[in-house]
């Protein structure tokens, strides 16, 4: 009972934080209407956990769709198999930071924040406290390189490890 109440509160807290409106000027509305973004389709290439455990899933089977606005704002939804082989969703928003452009290559970073849902630890088998909540807020730093419409990214997931993704703009 308490677990489901906590889950609902966490979901409401994160969703309200993601979508709270902020006062904007008429110029920003005009610029936003002109903003033609693009979509990226992503999949996982590899996963690595810092503490090797043969019971952990290193094949996330990630599939994600991300929308990039020209204002560097990003929105995304990702489905993957978590470290415990459970179907998991990550709904997020964030910002893209361009570091360096060299010819057709773009070095960048991005910081996403949102909500992860799909962890199930009712029997207390897994050690992480967040797993017991099932749904929780997350912040993921990512570093990437883009070449024309292709991208390769490495995202850190807490102190557990990293996942390498590749994708394509369309």
Automatic annotation (TrEMBL):
It comes from the Bacteria. This is Sn-glycerol-3-phosphate transporter. It comes from Orenia metallireducens.
């Amino acid at each position: 009972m308490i677990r489901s109440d906590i889950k609902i509160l966490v979901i409401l807290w994160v969703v309200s934080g993601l979508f709270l409106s902020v006062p904007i000027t008429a110029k920003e509305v005009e610029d936003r209407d002109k903003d033609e973004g693009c979509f990226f389709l992503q999949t996982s290439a590899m996963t690595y956990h810092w503490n090797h455990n043969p019971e952990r899933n290193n094949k996330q089977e990630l599939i994600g769709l991300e929308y990039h606005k020209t204002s560097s704002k990003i929105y995304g939804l990702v489905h993957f198999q978590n470290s415990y082989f459970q179907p998991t969703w990550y709904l997020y928003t964030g910002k893209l930071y361009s570091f360096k452009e060299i010819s057709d290559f773009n070095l960048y970073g991005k910081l996403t924040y949102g909500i992860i849902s799909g962890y199930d630890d009712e029997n207390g088998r897994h050690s992480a406290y967040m797993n017991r909540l099932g749904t929780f807020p997350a912040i993921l730093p990512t570093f990437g390189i883009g070449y024309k419409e292709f991208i390769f990214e490495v995202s850190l997931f807490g102190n557990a490890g990293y996942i390498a993704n590749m994708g394509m703009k369309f």
